[in-house]
Amino acid sequence: MLGLIVPGGLLVTGKATWQGLKKVFYPGLCIGILMVIMVLSHMAAISRVEAAYMIAVKRTGILFSVLYGAFLFREENIGERFWGAVLMLAGVVIIAVWA
After folding, report:
1. With helix as H, strand as E and coil as C, how does 18-70 read?
2. Would you give per-residue pLDDT tens digits along the chain (99 residues)?
3. Domain shared by 2 and 23, yes or no
4. Same domain, 73 and 94
5. Range(s) of the domain holding residue 42
6. What is d(CA 57, CA 94) in angstroms, rounded to the nearest whole number?
7. For the chain, what is the domain count?
8. Are residues 64 and 22 in the same domain?
9. Which 3 state secondary structure label does DSSP give 14?
């Protein structure tokens, strides 16, 4: 629904054109499909384990985000982000050990 409402709103307000929306149709479709897979995976995981544990493990993805920022996007001040991510990962380890 969001994939229909947002482009429609952009067209109505004049912030997008049909040609512009055609250019981003396939990338947008790919992103939408990946989001559906993510939500289905999330719900399947929640139904199998306690929510707190699943969310803790899911948050380990922040480390990958920091590494992507460093290597793919050449972000600055990566050290601060990295140590913040390590601290969050330490919380995941504590949950896993005490669970």
Report:
1. HHHHHHCHHHHHHHHHHHHHHHHHHHHHHHHCCHHHHHHHHCCHHHHHHHHHH
2. 777 898 899 999 999 999 999 999 999 899 889 999 999 998 998 899 887 778 777 777 888 888 889 999 988 888 888 898 888 888 878 877 786
3. yes
4. yes
5. 1-47
6. 11
7. 2
8. no
9. coil
